[in-house]
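In the laboratory, one determines a bound structure by crystallizing the protein with its ligand and collecting diffraction data. In a computational setting the workflow is compressed into a single prediction: the sequence and the ligand go in, and a structural description comes out. We illustrate the idea with calcium ion.
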Amino acid sequence: MLVLEDEDSIRSFVVINLRRAGFEPVEAATGNAALEALRADPEIRVALLDVMLPDIDGFEVCRRIRAEGNGVGIIMLSARGQEMDKITGLVSGADDYVTKPFSTAELTARIDALYRRTGEAPAARPAEELKQGPFVLNTRTRTLERAGQRVKLTQIEYALMLIFMQNPGQPLSREELLHRVWGEGFDGEDKVVDVNIRRLRIKLEDDSTQPAYLHTVWGFGYRWDA
Ligand code: CA
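The predicted complex, in structure-token form:
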């Protein structure tokens, strides 16, 4: 995993505690160093990104990681807890966020959860491919194709698509999606679900304002039909 934090004392504290928890963190003190470290080591599965940095801010680092097609699990480390920051982070392509000051236990729990979500799925699975309409979701390679074209998804978007395609035509509540994708320990608001749905629609729909596949079930949640 990667730890991007410009303040030496905080970075050392985080790295020492992550080593104790059994992780092998790679350190970066600037946004550009983090981007280089991720390019150099495709095995990195989780990145912690501080927001306030001397060169490019953490949101921009996050955007660039996604623009390069890297689906690494991303947790933003934000000093400010405002709603705006959380939403900006999620819109930038982050999977989760932790607000400073945080406890080591909280941080490692979030990292563990992200590893589980980005990790290898169990060997025994009922089907490797879910095919619906023009969509094919491959659960072995964790990829989605639309009419033969690869759709680049973050790990969270993949997890959402897996649930939708396992439950076609069935209305799923925001709470259920939040619980199943972000986990029981996630204390965020339902809004993260909406932000990710908006992103998925932009990737999947011909017209994201007139969704043909990812339907809104008013006052409840969402329904997938393809
Ligand atoms: Ca900082």
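The chain has a mean pLDDT of 87. Keep in mind that any predicted model is a hypothesis to be tested, not a measurement.
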